[in-house]
UniProtKB/TrEMBL annotation:
Coiled-coil ranges per UniProt: 95-129
Domain F-BAR: 5-264
Lineage: Eukaryota, Metazoa, Chordata, Craniata, Vertebrata
One Pfam family hit: FCH
Location of the SH3 domain: 318-375
GO molecular function annotations of the record: actin filament binding
Residues passing through the membrane, by range: none
InterPro entries reported in the protein's UniProt record: AH/BAR_dom_sf, F_BAR_dom, FCH_dom, SH3-like_dom_sf, SH3_domain
Entry keywords, A to Z: Coiled coil, SH3 domain
Protein name (record): Proline-serine-threonine phosphatase interacting protein 1b
Gene Ontology terms: biological process: actin filament polymerization
Coiled coil recorded as keyword: yes
GO cellular component: actin filament; cytoplasm; plasma membrane
Length: 375
């Protein structure tokens, strides 16, 4: 494998009319231009993404609430929103820097396009001239060879007829030989002139081809160096942005370190406390015991009198109905009959018209409100 370091040493062809070396270099330069455009588009698209991301972060930070929070957590939350907006703004600025790099690539690509175009125009002109003159030279060579063959044939024919022909025929043969020989000489002269012109043009083309190779070599070196530098800067910009992002998030972390759970709880208590004593319990109030005055007291005085003459002659064989006590009941005027919820009593008289019922429990009798019994 050849060890060449420059285009001018490796892109020639043995075929005089071939342009394969030049075409290969031109294809390489065009491919390089396409690569430059691809990198330019990549950087531009990355700038679009960074700008969109940055603006979305800024919008998110601005519309996020958190105003209902208080004290240290509120400060941490506000810090987080502020730094989020700062991160978004930094990414928008990064998008601007990326667009500047993309513009530099575009300028380089356009500049090289113009430079390359001048070389192409010059080489296309020389290729056309070289091919045309080469064809002309080859045609003159063919004509020269034909004229020489004709002259040789005429001379041979004349030599054969000189001995047998008359003077007039001999003169005619000599004139024809002279004419064909002069034609061959003219063809030879034209052929030599074309060869000299072709060699002169070849030298010019060879020099131009070498210069074109060197120029393409230079353009490629510049392009590769420039794109390498652009990708390096691109990576550095993104890396620096990561560092900036982390610095901003570090501010958030430092704010969170100052967030004190106990302090926030205490602050809220001091700010919004409503009292230190719970409400008193709700106590049960018996409807018939809420008022000790008036007719209600008279009604209670009628209950729980086991020695009352009204009931002391109730026969023992009376058909008694067993019922359950729904609510606890006691008579403050007498301790003779006190009932608890769910106890069982015997009904002696449930057909009174005053809302009371005569019951018996443990050989004690008394009046109980009908509503207190599960009749």
């Amino acid at each position: 494998m050849s060890d060449f370091n420059h285009f001018k040493d490796a892109f020639w062809s043995g075929d005089f009319t071939s342009t394969s070396g030049y075409d290969t270099l031109l294809q390489k330069v065009n491919d390089g231009r396409k690569t430059s455009k691809d990198l330019e588009d990549l950087v531009k698209q990355r700038a679009v993404l960074e700008e969109r991301y940055g603006k979305d972060l800024m919008q998110l930070a601005r519309k996020t609430g958190g105003q209902n929070e208080i004290n240290t957590l509120r400060r941490a939350f506000d810090t987080m929103k502020q730094q989020l907006e700062n991160v978004g703004n930094a990414h928008v600025q990064l998008a601007g820097a990326l667009r500047e790099e993309a513009k530099r690539v575009e300028d380089m690509r356009d500049r090289q396009k113009e430079q390359r175009r001048r070389v192409e125009i010059s080489m296309e002109r020389l290729h056309k001239q070289k091919n045309h003159l080469y064809k002309k030279t080859m045609d003159s060579k063919k004509c020269y060879e034909q004229k020489c063959q004709e002259a040789d044939e005429v001379e041979i024919t004349a030599d054969n007829r000189m001995a047998t022909g008359n003077v007039k025929q001999q003169e005619k043969l000599k004139a024809k030989v002279l004419q064909t020989r002069e034609s061959s000489v003219d063809a030879d002269k034209t052929y030599k002139q074309n060869v000299e012109a072709l060699n002169s043009l070849r030298q010019e083309w060879q020099k131009e081809h070498q210069q074109s190779c060197q120029y393409f070599d230079k353009l490629e070196c510049e392009r590769i160096t420039f794109l390498r530098r652009t990708m390096w800067i691109h990576s550095n910009l993104l890396s620096q942005q990561c560092v900036k992002d982390d610095e901003m998030y570090e501010v958030v972390r430092e704010s969170l370190e100052q967030c004190d759970v106990k302090a926030d709880i205490k602050y809220f208590i001091q700010l919004k406390q409503t009292g230190s004593e719970p409400p008193a319990p709700v106590l049960y109030e018996n409807y018939y015991h809420r008022n000790d005055h008036g007719g209600q007291k008279i009604a209670r005085d009628r209950t729980c009198k086991s020695e009352s003459t009204d009931y002391e002659f109730v026969p023992h064989n009376f058909n008694k109905k067993q019922v359950r006590v729904k609510y606890s009941f006691s008579d403050e005027t007498s301790n003779s009959l006190c009932l608890e919820e769910n106890e069982i009593v015997s009904v002696l008289d449930a057909h009174r018209n005053d809302g009371w019922c005569l019951v018996e429990q443990n050989n004690k009798t008394g009046l109980v409100p009908l509503s207190y019994l599960d009749l």
